[in-house]
């Protein structure tokens, strides 16, 4: 059982590093702002949200693997749910840039469906995490954190 949890946590950490935060559906995007500084601010905010999601996911992986105490489960799952909601909001403005591929905007309906599913499933995971149910959270990881699938489609690899 412990070995299985470690393997699942390692897979989670790898998936998050390769990454793919999944999208939220049927959301109408706002027109992109005309101001360059505003667009750059939106892109920067997205990047900060995703970086924090990575840190929160690392903590969750360590909790699931038994490397951090289970008492941190509610904190980790709540942070991920909040980050998923924030990421959904940050992508409502179709502002190209950062590592987001053009396909995110040309396939907006799919991209936003994925983001919506991510936010909804992460919120459900946070509810289970609030109860301290490590096994329940572990069983929800694939649906609640489909990062790699989305990143494979909609995020460019790091250049450095």
Write structural notes for this entry.
The chain is an all-alpha fold. Helices cover 69% and strands 0% of the residues. It has seven helices and no strands. The chain has helices spanning 2-18, 36-64, 73-90, 103-106, 108-130, 134-144, 147-154. Helix 3 (73-90) runs antiparallel to helix 5 (108-130) and helix 5 packs antiparallel against helix 6 (134-144). The N and C termini lie far apart (38 Å).
* Low-confidence spans: 3-28
Characterize the main sheet: none
- The SSE order reads HHHHHHH
Number of helices: 7
Distance between the termini: 38 Å
User: What is the general shape?
Assistant: elongated
User: Rg from C-alpha positions?
Assistant: 16 Å
Overall structural class, as computed from helix and strand content, comes to mainly alpha
The proportion of residues in beta strands is under 5%
Helicity range: 55-70%
Tell me the number of strands: 0
**Rounded average pLDDT:** 84
Keywords:
single chain, 160 residues, mainly alpha, 69% helix, 0% strand, disordered N terminus
Q: Secondary structure elements and their pairing?
A:
Blueprint (H helix, E strand, L loop, with lengths): L1 H17 L17 H29 L8 H18 L12 H4 L1 H23 L3 H11 L2 H8 L6
